[in-house]
């Protein structure tokens, strides 16, 4: 986490606890890629508004932002600019551990979100494996150290070279949004030699004969949840009705994606402004490595790894400790 995030945590701890009042506005965010599809479907079809209305809740304005990168999302949450955010599971685990026990900064997971074919692609013919990267070969990812791609890269490096070497490629990483990283990699005229990308960017990159895959997240994580949704605990405690409505809307979004992938692909194109044909977006939704579920799967693997290498000091005893009680009865991990 960046230093200003730590200052925000310290400052938040000194503020008085707010009075409980139902929110008049709910501010949410999602990122760019297919990993955020359930949130895009929720936004496109106003599923949260429908769930709140069905529950008889007072009308609350629902607003959305597009924010990507664990550090950026965490900073926005701590600054009070967001209420609910989709983010990489490692970024959430980092913030959960750092903010634990700080009343004004503590966060809690609302649900799981997705997994997909997260892959490390390169434009350098000589890079065939992780061992081939040199200090001159920069790896673009949404946020250094704590983003999904950054931690998964560390896990892949630890698997290849041993846990003591987990940070071996960290000095080569550069924080860039997925769209900017895609442009840099495809242009081939910058120091960016690789991009740890999720669809649609990984899909678009691999269509170019100059680009090839070095490795993928599935090599160390299998089908573990890559992205989750979280909120500040103070928001959840003050808004139990909105929290329940959000989970209902998430389950509905995941069910609608499964029932009608083509309509979900259309929502993705609209919400992401992706320049691709409907059949291309549909292929991503139907990819066998892509799954959408509100039930977290494998989140403890991040926590265990990050605790073992010292990235976090507090480790949950079980996955459900990091999430709202409503998920405790689900078969998560």
Give the topology:
Layout: H1 3-13, E1 25-30, H2 37-45, H3 47-54, E2 61-66, H4 70-78, E3 84-88, H5 89-99, E4 107-115, E5 119-122, E6 138-141, H6 148-161, E7 173-175, H7 178-187, E8 192-197, H8 201-206, E9 212-216, H9 218-221, E10 227-232, H10 233-238, H11 240-259, H12 261-272, H13 278-285, E11 291-292, H14 299-308
Parallel strand pairs: 1-2, 1-3, 6-7, 6-8
Antiparallel strand pairs: 3-10, 4-10, 4-11, 5-8, 5-9
Helix pairs in contact: 1-4, 2-11, 2-12, 3-11, 5-14, 11-12, 12-13
Explained architecture:
The protein has helices at residues 3-13, 37-45, 47-54, 70-78, 89-99, 148-161, 178-187, 201-206, 218-221, 233-238, 240-259, 261-272, 278-285, 299-308, and strands spanning 25-30, 61-66, 84-88, 107-115, 119-122, 138-141, 173-175, 192-197, 212-216, 227-232, 291-292. Mean pLDDT is 91; it is low at 1-20. By secondary structure, the protein is an alpha/beta fold. Helix 12 packs across helix 13 (278-285). It has a six-stranded mixed beta sheet, sandwiched between helices. The chain has a five-stranded mixed beta sheet with strand order 7-6-8-5-9, with helices on both faces. The protein folds into two domains: 3-15 and 23-115 and 224-321, Periplasmic binding protein-like II (D-Maltodextrin-Binding Protein, domain 2, 3-Layer(aba) Sandwich); 119-221, Periplasmic binding protein-like II (D-Maltodextrin-Binding Protein, domain 2, 3-Layer(aba) Sandwich), CATH 3.40.190. It starts with a helix and ends in a 25-residue tail after the last helix. The chain has 14 helices and eleven strands.
């Amino acid at each position: 986490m960046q230093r200003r995030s730590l200052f925000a945590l310290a400052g938040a701890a000194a503020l008085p606890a707010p009075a409980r009042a139902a929110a008049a506005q709910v501010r949410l965010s999602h990122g760019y890629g297919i990993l955020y599809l359930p949130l895009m479907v929720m936004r496109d079809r106003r599923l949260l508004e429908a769930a709140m209305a069905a529950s008889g809740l007072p009308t609350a304005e629902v607003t959305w932002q597009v924010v990507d990168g664990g550090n950026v999302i965490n900073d926005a949450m701590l600054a009070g600019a967001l209420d609910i955010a989709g983010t990489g599971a490692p970024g959430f685990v980092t913030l959960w551990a750092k903010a634990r026990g700080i009343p004004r900064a503590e966060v809690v997971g609302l649900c799981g979100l997705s997994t997909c074919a997260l892959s490390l692609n390169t434009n350098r013919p000589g890079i065939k494996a992780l061992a081939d990267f040199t200090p001159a070969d920069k790896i673009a990812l949404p946020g250094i150290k704590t983003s999904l791609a950054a931690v998964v890269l560390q896990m892949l490096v630890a698997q290849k070279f041993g846990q003591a070497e987990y940070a071996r490629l960290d000095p080569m990483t550069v924080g860039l949004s997925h769209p900017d990283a895609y442009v840099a990699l495809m242009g081939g005229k910058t120091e960016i030699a690789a991009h740890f990308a999720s669809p649609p960017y990984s899909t678009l990159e691999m269509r170019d004969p100059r680009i090839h895959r070095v490795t993928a997240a599935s090599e160390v994580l299998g089908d573990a949840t890559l992205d989750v949704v979280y909120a500040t605990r103070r928001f959840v405690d003050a808004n139990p009705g909105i929290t329940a409505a959000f989970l209902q809307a998430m389950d509905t979004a995941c069910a609608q994606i499964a029932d009608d992938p083509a309509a979900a692909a259309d929502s993705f194109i609209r919400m992401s402004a992706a320049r691709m044909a409907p059949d291309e977006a549909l292929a991503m939704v139907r990819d066998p490595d892509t799954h959408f579920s509100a039930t977290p799967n494998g989140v403890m693997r991040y926590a265990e790894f990050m605790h073992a290498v010292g990235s976090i000091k507090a480790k949950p005893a079980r996955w459900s400790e990091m999430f709202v009680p409503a998920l405790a009865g689900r078969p998560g991990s």
